[in-house]
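Technical note accompanying the year-one report. For the benefit of new consortium partners, we illustrate the data format agreed upon in the data management plan: each record pairs a sequence with a structure-token string. No post-processing was applied to the example shown here.
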Amino acid sequence: MHRSLSEIIRFGMVGALATALHYGIYFLLWRYAGFNENIAYTVGYALSFVANFYLSAYFTFRSRPSWKRAGGFGGAHLVNYLLHICLLNLFLWLGIPEEWAPLPVFSIAIPVNFLLVRLVFKSRRK
């Protein structure tokens, strides 16, 4: 299998796991703990971020985590988080129910995230 294709497949697997974790935390906090949608979404994002960083480093991009990569990954995810939260609020404003609003957000933001994170792990600087 071509190297880039296998990387995309690994990214998809890690992304699916991180997204499921993110959505699961969001849903539980919003539905059962009574958290505001934005707070529940942010907590889910933060917790899935940690798992995503280590899985992306070791499994997706087959590299070692480092403080520089953590900083780059954090920067990429800060941009991505802002995209997520803006889209979430847009979809809520458009009337999409709270339990479904994260799904179109994921479909837009995940490809953007792949490109940003790939830059972090594929850069020559370590």
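Partners are asked to follow this layout when depositing records. The first helix runs from residue 3 to 31.
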